Amino acid sequence: MFESVQTLVDEYAQIQGRLADPAVYQDQGLARKLGRRGAELSSIVETYRRWQQAQEDLEASSEMAELDPEFAAEAEELKVAIPVIAEKLRRLLIPRDPNDGRDAILEVKGGEGGAEAALFAGDLLRMYIRYAESRGWKTELISANESDLGGYKDAQIAIKGKGNDPAQGVYAALKYEGGVHRVQRVPVTESQGRIHTSAAAVLVFPEVDEPEEIEIQQNDLKIDVYRSSGPGGQSVNTTDSAVRITHLPTGIVVAMQNEKSQLQNRDAAMRVLRSRLLAYQQEQIDAENSDARHSQVRSMDRSERIRTYNFPENRIADHRTGYKAYNLDAVINGDIQPLIDSCISVDEESRLAALGEGED
C-alpha cells in the first residue's frame, strides 16, 4: 500500500536540495515553481511518514500487548488512527490542478436584471474582498465599470495569497466560484415590494507569475484604442486611453479603461489576457486527459447556474453540491468557506471514484 509514494519522497528531497542552492533564486520563476511543488509534496511526505511510523508502532505494541496492558491499549488506538491517516494520505495523492497554488484574477459581471444585477455584482465583489481579508489575502482593483445606481456592470480584482502551499492557494479555493450566481430579493428600485430574480456571472483565472510564462506573439493580437466612458480623471472622454486587446487564435477579448494612460491600460489588459490564456491552456490539457482529472463541481461552462442567494428566506444554496444554509447575511459578508469546502469535498470524492475506476 502506498508503494508509489516513495517516488514523491525522492522528488521532495531533490527539490529541497535545489531550494538550498542560492543560485536557484536567480530565476525567480523557477524558485516559485519549485517552492510551490515542494509545499505540495511536503504534506504528502509528512503524512506518509506518520503512516509509516504508526504502522511500525502498531507492530511493536502488538508484540508487547500480552506482557503489558498499556501496549494493548496503544495497539487498539493505533488500529483506529491508521485508517484515518491512510485516508488523509489517499486524498493528498489525488492529482491536483497545477494552478492551485497561484494567485487569482476574479471578475464579476452584472447579468440579467439591469440595475439590480449590477447591484448584486457589487455585493458579490464585496463578499469576495471580505473573504480574502479573512484569509489574510491582499486584493487589488484592476478595473471597474460602475452602474448609475451603484454596483458594477463589470469589475476585476487581483487576489494575492501568502505562501506556496497549493492546498491554501487563492486559486485552489476561488476556482469553484466561477459560474452564474442568482439572487432573489426585493430591489431598491421596486416600489411594490415584489421579489425579483436577477443574476451575475463570476469568472476566476489563475494569475501568471511571470510574463514569460505565457508566450504571446504580437501578430496574434488585435489592439484597438478608444475613448473611456464613465467616471474618471481628466483624460476620461477626452483621449483615446481605453484599450481593447483581442487574441486572434483563441478569440479572447480583454478591454481596460480605468487607468488614465493608454500604456497603463494596455499593461493591465495584458496582465488579464495572460491569466485567461493560462486558464485556456489548462482547459485544453484537462480535456485531453482522463476522467480522473475531471471536476464534477468546476465546469468551464460560464453560463452554468451554480448558486442561489434568497434574501427573503436568508437562504444560500449551491446547486452543484446540495449545500444549503440559512445564514445568507453572514455569507454575503464574506463567510463563504463552508460553501467552498462543500465543493472541495464533492470534487475530491468524484476524483477518488474516477481513480478507483482506473485501477480496476
Provide a descriptive summary of the structure in words.
There is one protein chain. By secondary structure, this protein is of the alpha+beta class. The protein has two domains: 88 residues; 247 residues, Alpha-Beta Plaits (2-Layer Sandwich), CATH 3.30.70.1660. It has an eight-stranded mixed sheet with strand order 2-3-1-5-4-9-10-11. About 2% of the residues have low confidence.
Strands side by side in the biggest sheet: 2-3-1-5-4-9-10-11
- CATH topology name of the largest domain, in short, is Alpha-Beta Plaits
Q: What's the number of domains?
A: 2
Shape: globular
GO molecular function: translation release factor activity, codon specific
Modified residues (N5-methylglutamine): 234
Function: Peptide chain release factor 1 directs the termination of translation in response to the peptide chain termination codons UAG and UAA.
Main location: cytoplasm
